[in-house]
Amino acid sequence: MNENNITSALAYYKAFEEKNIGAIARHLHPDVQFAAPMGESKGRDAVVEAAKRLVPFVKSINVRAKFASGDQVVLVYDLHLSMSAQRRC
């Protein structure tokens, strides 16, 4: 189970690099909760909406470390963003 969870977590961040919103959504539990310094989102739909706002700025994600225990996974990564993403109206 641990390896499957790691594979899923890696695929989630790969979807960000590919700007693939559908793939991002497929890797989220319906009751996901996301907390970050800039805010908090609860539920798949809310997290996907937040992802839609972030993906235009994602240049790359470099995973430095990964481990799992039971049904939990931790990834340590560098998130490289572009501040010149094209804005859509």
What does this structure look like?
- 37% of the residues lie in helices and 34% in strands.
- It has helices spanning 2-17, 21-26, 44-54; strands at 33-36, 39-42, 58-69, 72-81.
- A hairpin with a 2-residue loop joins strand 3 (58-69) and strand 4.
- The N and C termini lie far apart (42 Å).
- The chain has 89 residues and is of the alpha+beta class.
- It has one domain (2-81): Nuclear Transport Factor 2, Chain: A, CATH 3.10.450.
- The mean pLDDT is 90.
- The protein is globular, with a radius of gyration of 13 Å.
- The strands form 2 sheets. The chain has a two-stranded antiparallel sheet. A two-stranded antiparallel ribbon has the order 3-4.
Question: How would you classify the helix and strand content by structural class?
Answer: alpha+beta
CATH class category name: Alpha Beta
Helix-strand sequence: HHEEHEE
Strands in their spatial order, largest beta sheet: 1-2
What fraction strand? Answer: 25-35%
Q: What's the CATH architecture name?
A: Roll
Q: What is the typical, i.e. mean, pLDDT?
A: 90
Low-confidence blocks of residues: none
Total of helices: 3
